Amino acid sequence: MSGNQETKLNNLVEWSKQQGSSIDSRVVFKYSEASGVHAIVNDDVQESFSLIQVSKNILITPDYATDYFGVKENDPTNINNSWLQLFVAKLKFDTNEPTILTTDGVNCSEKWKHYIDYLPETLNNPFWWNEDEKSLLKGTDAGILLNRQYQSLLQEWQSLITVICQKFPNWATIGNTELAKLQGLTTSKHKLNTVTSWLSFPAYLWAANIFTSRAFPYFIINDHVKDLNQACLIPILDLLNHKHTAKVGWSYVDHQVNFVPKQSLKSGDELFNNYGDKSNTGLLLGYGFVLENNEFDETFVTLKVDESQITDAKQLGIKLPEGASSIGINFSITNNDCLPENLVNFFAFLVQLKSEKAMITLRMKLDGLTQLASIINQKVEFYKTQGKINTSMASKVSPSVIKVVKSYMLCQKKLFQSCFEEIGKLEKSLLKKHKPLSFKTVLKNDKPFMNSLLLTIGVSSYDTLVKQKIVDQVFLLWVVRSVNLFNDGEKSSVKPPQFIVDEFKQVAKSIVVTKEDVLEYHPLYKTFFPSLPQKIPEIYGHGEWGIKQFIIAGTVADRVCYTRSANNELFLLERKAV
Ligand SMILES: C[S@@+](CC[C@H](N)C(=O)[O-])C[C@H]1O[C@@H](n2cnc3c(N)ncnc32)[C@H](O)[C@@H]1O
């Protein structure tokens, strides 16, 4: 820490004490490159011992802003702490009119001088990164949210400044100049990082980021607060860094905010606060750092589908995440639930066939999992490559940004990796539980059919069919054979599966064969006919072997087949709800 910053910190601590706050003598403030100012205890501390008491006198609360700007608490522009943020921007950046007086004569600039002087001017969260640095987040949750939050802050600021210009004629000139700077600029060209006045957008952005990185919920000190997002600034307590496992308590007693660690501390331990169960995306955007092994980490699979599909999925009993709409459905992937049931079911729904109306079948579930696995695998690959920052980029971005981006990417990749592994496990357990018929076993048991393959195409095992990529064709041939065998009624050692025969009959009843179908199946048909009945008449010489039978078998295949991608094993699934 520079000497100047150290002086500012000491001034802040002294001022807070003069204003009635107390800091236990075992708490000392230190500085590190990695996490800035933080507190250490230089002796053991018992659990539940109140270490810091901050006087109400020094808190920056919303009432100061509403009083100063003459805004009603329920004013529609008074959302997201907007007026309080503007108030803090004025405290920090207004050099023309440095005295801010409230209606009852409190000189706010004087009052919070040491606190405002201490607040960091340069923030390290992505809102303050240069364009090359920001581009490293392209395609990530953080990148998407960064743009979205930037836009909404911009709109929030525009509404505030418009009100300011109407209400306060002496600020209107600066306000209008600041508003005009943004006219005609596209989103990507917003490189406004320089504070030109307290009414400028960068001044507001700075104040908003001070709130995301340092503010506390206002309800801690005011029971009547209805809006849980309403915030206040609590000097001194905001010098504590975050640990997601830290057990802490905040309470408001006798006009003081008490900070109490709910665990004992050893001499030399860092005295942490707990900012809440935040994901790395939340930490990165709000605070500029991420935690490896963050148990609250989260990422999303976002899908865009029609409104009608959302309605149909709900009708099927799938509980969609809150806010699901045709704009997007965000399925949350966390460490605790890296493969949410509703995501699995929604993918099953997406591959539903007409013949599977009103139920989720094993085939839908397995096929849906295959589609999902492919998307998740793309995400894993994306984070693998995106996480490797190329050397040409490395010269344009700061090492601290590279470090935080790499760490963020790695954690996101881990979540998707766990999701991918979980898909494999679920597929395995579904197959184990429902034990669907394996085509490999079918062939092993149907010796005459297997012999016929050997004599005609020279193939003697399932694995060779896989190698030659002809499993699907042979499956169609076997379906037609099974139906003929069944219709023959002959006593045979081979029993065709009843559900295959039933499915074939059902398709046969409703199918309308088109010219396109015939053209599609013609090449396959020609490979088997007329040679098969000539060579092996005992199987192919009686029954129905027309091209139509193969077209029907094709639809049967769509309805009953599932190929496990890990080993290309083909399973035949009965249609039943799971
Ligand atoms: C409430 S302030 C804490 C005091 C701050 N370190 C300072 O220098 O004033 C929050 C900021 O501290 C830093 N910080 C907090 N917890 C951290 C952690 N576990 N690892 C790295 N930086 C952390 C981040 O820069 C964050 O934006």
TrEMBL record:
One term of GO molecular function: protein-lysine N-methyltransferase activity
InterPro entries cross-referenced by the UniProt entry: SET_dom, SET_dom_sf, SETD3_SETD6_MTase
Gene Ontology CC: one annotated term: nucleus
SUPFAM superfamilies per UniProt: SET domain
Organism for this UniProt entry: Saccharomycopsis crataegensis
Protein name: Protein-lysine N-methyltransferase
Positions of the SET domain: 25-276
